[in-house]
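Standup notes, protein team

Yesterday: finished cleaning the Ureibacillus aquaedulcis set.
Today: Isoprenylcysteine carboxylmethyltransferase family protein structure.
Blockers: none.

Input for Isoprenylcysteine carboxylmethyltransferase family protein:
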Amino acid sequence: MFFVLFVSIVILQRIIEVIIARRNEKRMLAAGAYEAGASHYPIMIALHVGFFISLIIEVVVFERTISPLFIWLFILFFLVQVLRVWCLASLGPFWNTKIIILPGANVVKKGPYRLFRHPNYLVVCIEILLLPLMFQAYFTAICFTLLNFAMLAVRIPTEERALMEATNYSEKFKKKETTILPNDQKH
C-alpha cells in the first residue's frame, strides 16, 4: 500500500510537470520558438512511461519490499526533488520536457544552471536509479538507468546544438581557458 501511494505521488508530480511544460510550450511557440529533437521525444516519453510500468510490475508481481536503506535513499530522493524544483523555478517559462528553442533568447544561467549545464537531466538520472532502489527493484534500476543514459546521449547533444545555433548558449557556457602562464607569456 505504501509503495502504491508513494509511486502515485511521483506520477502525479510528473503529470503536473507535463501540464506546466505544455503551458510553457504554448507561450514559447507563440513568441516564435520552435521544437528541436521532436523525433526522439516520443521515445523519451515511452522510456519514462515504461519505467513506471516496469517499477510497478517488479515491485507488485515479484513482491519486492522496502529497502533496508530506505530512509537514506528517501532523504536523497527528497533532496533530488528540491533540486528538481530549483531547476524548474530557475528556468521559469523556459522549462520544458521538450527541447523548445526561442531564437535570440538569453540562456538562463542562474540557480543550479550556474553550476553546470544540465542539472535537470542529473535529477532524472538519479531518480531513475533511486526510486527502484528504495523498493529493491534492481532490474528496473539497472535497465532504465542504462536506457536513460542512451536517451541522454542523443538528447543532450541535440539540445546543445539547437541552443548554440539560435541563442547565446555558446557565450554563456564557453569553456574558460586555464593556463599556468600569465597572459603576456601565452603564444
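Follow-up from PR in the comments: The chain has one domain: 2-169.
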